[in-house]
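Re: beginner question about structure tokens

> Can someone show what the tokenized structure looks like for a real chain? I only ever see the sequence side.

Sure, here's an example I had lying around. Input first:
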Amino acid sequence: MNPLLSRLQPYPFERLRQLHSGITPNPAYAPISLGIGEPRHATPQLVKDAISASFGGLASYPGTLGEPRLRQTIQAWLARRYGLEVDFATQILPVNGSREALFSLAQTIIDPSKPGATVVCPNPFYQIYEGAALLAGADIWFAPSDAARNFAVDWAGVPDAVWAKTQLLFVCSPGNPAGSVMSLAEWKLLFDLSDRHGFVIASDECYSEIYFRDEAPLGGLQAAALLGRADFKNLIAMTSLSKRSNVPGLRSGFVAGDAAIIQQFLLYRTYHGSAMSPIVQAASVAAWADEQHVVENRAMYREKFAAVTPLLSAVMDVALPDAGFYLWAGVPSAFKGSDTAFSRELLAAYNVVVLPGSYLARNGQDQQGHNPGAGRVRMALVAQTAECVQAAQRIVQFIQSRH
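And the corresponding structure tokens:
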């Protein structure tokens, strides 16, 4: 077996299953899960119609590069959303969801033969970053976060000695789990560091279309263009339809950016066997071409966050995020900062599932062993508004019962 597999840690939801084993939830309450970030709004009818009209695609092998029509549709979306000029022939590739792309891009980029090959990522973070780095033969370094700035990453806190060994940097904006959005100044810092040290930036932007401010979140390619980097040197941005269009089962997204990296990524993917089904491509064209369902989806999230956040903020350290569909909440002092105890006891008493924040982070190399997710829980507000409000009311009752 590949010895690198032994370096992997259990996935957060496996740890959650083990944490909750042996618990009998209170049968007086119907179960409500805020644990997994799986969109549960209705899939747009236009996506279903495109699928049902495309079964003929089952009779042919898909090309790894994807059909020109799909890449042109993505090109048009990037122009509308970010005002970008991107070449569909050389700077865009369809992928089977951003999770798959995050993992496979690392296998393309990392050269494990170089001593100290390093991947840098946020902390807290999406665990695919860690797995992708370790299975590519690299070490991983967790950048510190700033709790005072909604757990935004403190990129300046990464030592120069680490940047000198870095081959790949994972960026997540809007962030998972705290929902913070990177500024243009932060992007400039990262581009300057990339130019100095030569590492590639992989920008994970799968939450970009769920936001609560008037201004849509800044994207990595958009930041590059604003800073005069129209060639997107050493930058790959990726996103998916899962959150934007409520189709997590479709497994559809794209990567875009540096044409030289895209060329090598295409070579890797040709052997990897990751071509997108023609049916999925047809459905993706329909989804990327339509914005009305995205506007309606965003309105539903705004409604539920407006209803839930004030309830929880009265008893927890939590506030409306910049974007995304998570609330990143501090555990009250009555639980002595234990996010795992909070999760277990909430399930037992009120049949509500939340994810311990410590499962989404690691002990930081520069934080005296501190896990920045400890003492917090992540709540995915993916169900309908009424169910999310009911969960929030139970959490309020739960916390008040401990005082």
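Each token stands for a local structural state, so reading them left to right follows the chain. The chain has a mean pLDDT of 96.
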